[in-house]
């Protein structure tokens, strides 16, 4: 078989000739090939095209529905008893349903097109090494053109438009949620339990604004059911998700997770009011991304062996130490405390920190000590923040200096 062809010879060949030559040069043997619809205007072809178009339309509609839900559906948190609770609970399921239908419909359309429109073909090719020469490049182009022609997609303008629209919209379904993650990490907003929106702040930063912050633990309380003249309903009035902690609430060698609780949001002890509704603010504190703190009460013998960090000698209260629960590796919760060794463990990547040496990392990938929160006790005997953290919480970022 001739393998060297001049440019003039190649130019004189039709696309079919080049495609045939390409299969021969690539040592491809077409063992079987059959047109799906050899007879023009076959009703079966129209039915197949109609079925594929229906799936593409379904994909387009579902993708548009996804974008509509993502952009306009009420997504802000709603608790039990809130007016828009039903709408809020449907937000995530609707995103999953519409995105799934969009992507699956596009996939079904592609599979059906291959199975019902593109000719059946079985080809066998021998592999060979080495770069391609001019004749190989020309014949490959011809083969691609032949594939486009035999697919018949070029003459199916309506289906081609639907396929393009479905593909673009399915891509937007995947890409659009990423837009919600793009933000300016240094754009300051109002200081709340979530900080002011920058990586330097947390709910504990409220202390710098003169807010008294109690160390409060999560009770896990949820909305309560009430029955009245108007029927049965749920309410969070009088429900305290966070309650203040006293030193005697923690046994020696024990640990508890605590969150910042502003004085104005206290609803426990002698300040309890069954009519007050502070549940939402409590949940904001719990959901603050850098708010969780490990409150540890060391055994007296262990507390005597503590090595304080320079400049933080007065951050503890007696045998009580408070360390950020956000691992300095990649931000997982350091939720394990081993009282025999006084080590704080992160279950994600097995980093370990020494509670007797200012939360210093002693094992694993974490490279920085856990930030320590200054704590003290107020006149009523409750543990409160004595100040804000003096270093950023969580893992490293470019602008972080420590």
UniProtKB/TrEMBL annotation:
Protein's UniProt keywords contain Lipid biosynthesis: no
Membrane topology term: Multi-pass membrane protein
PROSITE patterns xrefs: RIESKE (PS51296)
GO cellular component: plasma membrane
SUPFAM superfamilies: ISP domain
Transmembrane parts of this sequence: 52-73, 93-114, 162-182
Alphabetical list of Gene3D superfamilies matching this protein: Rieske [2Fe-2S] iron-sulphur domain
GO molecular function annotations of the record: 2 iron, 2 sulfur cluster binding; metal ion binding; monooxygenase activity; oxidoreductase activity, acting on paired donors, with incorporation or reduction of molecular oxygen
InterPro entries named in the record: QcrA_N, Rieske_2Fe-2S, Rieske_2Fe-2S_sf, Rieske_Fe-S_prot
Domain spans labelled Rieske: 318-384
Pfam families (alphabetical): QcrA_N, Rieske
Compartments (UniProt record): Cell membrane
Matching CDD domains: Rieske (cd03467)
Domain of life from the UniProt record: Bacteria
Keywords: 2Fe-2S, Cell membrane, Disulfide bond, Electron transport, Iron, Iron-sulfur, Membrane, Metal-binding, Oxidoreductase, Respiratory chain, Transmembrane, Transmembrane helix, Transport
Main location: membrane
Physiological role: Iron-sulfur subunit of the cytochrome bc1 complex, an essential component of the respiratory electron transport chain required for ATP synthesis. The bc1 complex catalyzes the oxidation of menaquinol and the reduction of cytochrome c in the respiratory chain. The bc1 complex operates through a Q-cycle mechanism that couples electron transfer to generation of the proton gradient that drives ATP synthesis.
Family: Belongs to the Rieske iron-sulfur protein family.
Protein name in UniProt: Cytochrome bc1 complex Rieske iron-sulfur subunit
Taxonomic source organism: Corynebacterium halotolerans YIM 70093 = DSM 44683
